[in-house]
Design goal:
The chain has 331 residues and is of the alpha/beta class. The chain is 47% helix and 16% strand.
Length: 331
């Protein structure tokens, strides 16, 4: 049956994949960081304090003092391609697109900042994607990361008259593809060092301890990742949690405290961040720069930061395998 002459032009149906990471300011300056932090720290899943109490604090002292300090930290790791997180996520997107070819359209978005999730979904729909796999790039599930991506996607879908079918990539903290990629990456990075570290320290992003008490599986999944990776590597992996914020009690042990303890003990250490899919401010500045300074100031001598999976071969093979599994039945 032929279409009516006035029928609107329609793109042929396609499958879309949307990679989603946390986010980054547009530039390493205070105004850009202020906009980014205002959005990030206003998410009720990120800061679970009643807004009537939290917003005056956020709009007062935090957004007045923190942006300048954070902008200085971003400036230390900023590249010609922009923020490391954005540059690496673009590279991951390009590599995944090359792996799938024309069968899948791959895009990326940031939960906070740009490119935003809503416009990214709109672009995929406009390209003819009637089925979209949303892939939050967080191996371990947390309400403040994975769940808020689901929230944002759902909120945007509410604005669409013709909604695509949507799936979400599940957490992959114990997936054999993820653990295999970590093992390969860590072993290669350790093999390139000119020393053998006494301690291999896995630093995960911290969360308030109350999230564990409220039933969030994040802490348990981080511990499981480290345990399974230690078994695969055949050596112990110690665990710590970084990026504490505010006065609440956070998951312990704290990465900075552990680095100082190891430094005082005269140990050598290699630290890596298996919960981050791409190197970013929290890995390149907080661990590789400040973490090293804390370790050496405490008396430590040999320190190494091991990079994230990023867009390297092991990480991209893992990501392709996960995505292919989740779009089974669509291709």
């Amino acid at each position: 049956m032929s279409k009516p002459a006035d029928h609107p032009q329609m793109s042929p149906p396609q499958i879309g994949v949307l990679l989603v990471n946390l986010g980054t300011p547009d530039a390493p300056d205070a105004p850009s960081v202020r906009r980014y932090l205002a959005e990030f720290l206003s998410d009720r899943r990120v800061v679970e304090i009643p807004q009537i109490l939290w917003q005056p604090i956020l709009r007062g002292i935090i957004l007045t003092t923190r942006p300048k300090k954070s902008a200085h930290a971003y400036a230390q790791v900023w590249t010609d391609e922009g923020s490391p997180l954005a540059a690496i996520t673009r590279a991951q997107t390009d590599a995944l697109q090359a792996a799938f070819g024309e069968t899948v359209r791959v895009a990326y978005a940031m939960r906070y900042g740009n490119p935003a999730i809503g416009p990214a979904i709109d672009a995929l729909v406009a390209a003819g994607c009637r089925r979209i796999l949303v892939a939050p790039l967080y191996p371990q599930y947390c309400g403040a990361t994975t769940a808020t991506v689901v929230d944002a996607v759902g909120a945007h879908l509410k604005t669409l008259r013709w909604q695509p079918a949507v799936r979400f990539l599940p957490p992959y903290h114990d997936d054999t593809a993820y653990l295999g990629a970590l093992k390969t990456s860590v072993e290669a990075a350790l093999g390139a060092l000119d020393f053998v570290p006494d301690v291999l320290l896995a630093s995960f992003h911290g969360m308030p301890e109350r999230t564990l008490q409220l039933g969030d599986p994040y802490h348990c999944q981080c511990r499981k990742t480290a345990r399974l990776l230690a078994e695969a590597l055949g050596r112990p992996v110690e665990v710590a949690f970084q990026s504490r914020f505010g006065r609440a009690k956070w998951l312990e042990p704290a990465t900075d405290a552990e680095l100082e303890r190891l430094g005082r003990g005269g140990r050598s250490v290699a630290v890596f961040a298996p919960g981050f899919s791409a190197d970013c401010l929290e890995t390149l500045e907080e661990l590789a720069i400040r973490g090293k300074q804390q370790f050496e100031s405490a008396g430590g001598k040999q320190f190494a930061y091991l990079p994230c999976l990023n867009a390297g071969t092991p990480g991209m093979a893992m990501l392709e395998a996960l995505v292919r599994r989740e779009v089974t039945g669509w291709l």
